[in-house]
């Protein structure tokens, strides 16, 4: 029997969505609640294997949630989330019975490693309740490979990891660029310092500067306290700027100054703050092409391109596919509490011969799906469940054309985006990943559709008047 769901409690919808998506992708069943009171109602009715709660919430704090959970169902472990710099909150929570804690900001690797550790400890008579935990760090996880080219990249990455030089990692989506960033941090010699990953595409335009560089109390409406930005939170560790090409040009200019001067100006601040972290920039688009399109600053490109790495696409390292398949079979067998399945020669041949446009992420999704739907100890080609578009027959191609006949490309795009959002319960982060676009692009598309609808409604109203 599988584990009961994990309950995520956070009053911020984006954080709930991000946590739920990260855990779901790693095989966990997840439910979420927007408040402590809502969570307790659910806990009284339904079983949960684990509760993850933010400390700072209105009406009912995470500490109050922890106390209530321990009274209602003492056997459910609780992980608390608290801001970096509020370590006393984490200590207080551990003393009150929390199984573990996460210090913001944390990576999804850290989240999943902590959840697995707590659940494993719960299965072993609650070891998480008594252990002394001083700091949560990213799990050492490197790229799975026997490819000579990628092994050379890892060797070079390890040799430069101890420097403070800025690193640029490029490659297609799904190739494992952030895994290389984690590998560099873990081999840096300052891996006991924070690892802070930032998705630049997900930064709200109005708050991006504050998120990265921090702000002073009263700097703008709603700034009720001073806030440390990601660069300060990283201290002497590593800041990873994922999808850096999605950063706006004004923000790029401010980042350039930070990298040149090695100091930060908080929003509303009167003095500069030294910046000690090493920066790793990640991009899945060709930055030189972005420069030619006036979407990326050339001076910033040369500032971040001190030590460049390019991760090869999976189609360039076909020899790694059997190794990766075995790795994912092991991973999802453990996550689903199953015996590890074998894979038939025919299925492996199909995997090796397939064109992997989504790279390792697409391969992993295929194996995860096959493990879940496959019956018996061996996975067969039919368990891989590829989309018909991978090898369309004449009749399939004809039916697709018939379905979209008379529809404009723009309308097809709109229908695809709308349908995808419906399938993922309006989780924009997940939808953008499935569609192969950035969350910024998705937001722009949705804003465009909303404006078109409002214009159409206004026109109808005008005609009616």
What is the fourth-level CATH superfamily of the largest domain?
A: P-loop containing nucleotide triphosphate hydrolases
* Adjacency order of strands in the biggest sheet: 2-1-3-4-5
Number of individual domains: 4
> What does the main sheet amount to?
5 strands, parallel
CATH fold-type name of the largest domain:
Rossmann fold
Radius of gyration: 24 Å
The helical percent reads: 40-55%
Number of helices: 20
- How far the N terminus sits from the C terminus, by CA atoms, comes to 63 Å
Uncertain spans, ≥5 residues at pLDDT below 50?
124-140, 391-403
Label the CATH architecture of the largest domain.
3-Layer(aba) Sandwich
Describe it.
There is one protein chain. With 465 residues, this protein is an alpha/beta fold. The chain folds into four domains: 6-129, Response regulator (Rossmann fold, 3-Layer(aba) Sandwich), CATH 3.40.50.2300; 148-312, P-loop containing nucleotide triphosphate hydrolases (Rossmann fold), CATH 3.40.50; 324-385, Helicase, Ruva Protein, domain 3, CATH 1.10.8.60; 394-464, Arc Repressor Mutant, subunit A. The chain is 48% helix and 12% strand. The chain contains 20 helices and 14 strands. It has helices spanning 13-25, 36-45, 62-72, 87-95, 108-123, 148-160, 177-186, 208-213, 230-233, 249-261, 287-292, 298-304, 321-335, 345-353, 359-373, 381-384, 394-404, 409-423, 428-435, 439-464, and strands at 6-9, 30-33, 50-54, 78-83, 100-104, 167-170, 195-199, 238-242, 263-264, 273-274, 278-283, 307-310, 342-343, 378-379. The chain is globular and about 65 Å long.
């Amino acid at each position: 029997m599988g584990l009961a769901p994990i309950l995520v409690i956070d009053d911020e919808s984006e954080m709930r969505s991000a946590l739920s998506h990260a855990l779901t992708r790693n095989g966990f069943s997840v439910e979420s609640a927007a408040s402590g009171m809502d969570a307790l109602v659910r806990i009284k009715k339904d079983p949960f294997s684990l509760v993850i709660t933010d400390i700072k919430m209105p009406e009912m704090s995470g500490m109050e949630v922890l106390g209530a959970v321990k009274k209602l169902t003492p056997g459910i472990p609780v992980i608390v989330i608290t801001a970096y710099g509020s370590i006393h909150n984490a200590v207080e929570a551990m003393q009150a019975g929390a199984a573990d804690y996460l210090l913001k900001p944390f990576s999804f690797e850290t989240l999943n490693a902590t959840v697995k550790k707590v659940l494993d400890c719960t299965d072993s008579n609650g070891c998480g309740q008594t252990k002394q935990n001083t700091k949560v760090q990213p799990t050492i996880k490197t790229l799975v490979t026997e490819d000579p080219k990628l092994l050379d990249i890892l060797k070079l990455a390890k040799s430069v990891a101890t420097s403070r030089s800025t690193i640029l990692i490029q490659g297609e989506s799904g190739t494992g660029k952030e895994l290389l960033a984690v590998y560099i941090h873990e081999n840096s010699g300052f891996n006991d310092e924070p690892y802070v990953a930032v998705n630049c595409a997900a930064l709200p335009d109005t708050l991006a500067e504050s998120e990265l560089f921090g702000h002073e109390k009263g700097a703008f409406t709603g700034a009720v306290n001073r806030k440390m930005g990601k660069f300060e939170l990283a201290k002497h560790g590593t800041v990873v700027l994922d999808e850096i090409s999605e950063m706006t040009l004004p923000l790029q200019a401010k980042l350039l100054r930070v990298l040149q001067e090695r100091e930060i100006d908080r929003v509303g601040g009167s003095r500069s703050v030294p910046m000690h972290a090493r920066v790793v920039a990640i991009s899945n688009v060709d930055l030189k092409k972005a420069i030619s399109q006036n979407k990326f600053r050339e001076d910033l490109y040369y500032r971040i391109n001190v030590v460049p790495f390019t991760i090869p696409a999976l189609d360039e390292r076909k020899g790694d596919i059997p190794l990766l398949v075995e790795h994912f079979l092991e991973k999802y067998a453990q996550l689903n509490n199953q015996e590890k399945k074998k894979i038939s020669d025919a299925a492996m041949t199909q995997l090796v011969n397939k064109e992997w446009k989504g790279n390792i992420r697409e391969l992993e999704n295929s194996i995860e799906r096959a493990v879940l739907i496959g019956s018996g100890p061996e996975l067969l080609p039919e368990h891989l469940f590829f989309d018909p578009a991978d090898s369309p027959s004449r009749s399939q191609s004809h039916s697709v054309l018939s379905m979209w006949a008379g529809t404009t490309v723009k309308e097809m795009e709109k229908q695809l985006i709308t349908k995808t959002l419906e399938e993922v319960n309006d989780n924009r982060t997940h939808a953008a990943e499935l569609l192969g676009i950035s969350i910024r692009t998705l937001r722009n598309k949705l804003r465009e559709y909303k404006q078109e609808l409002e214009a159409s409604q206004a026109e109808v109203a005008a005609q009616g008047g």
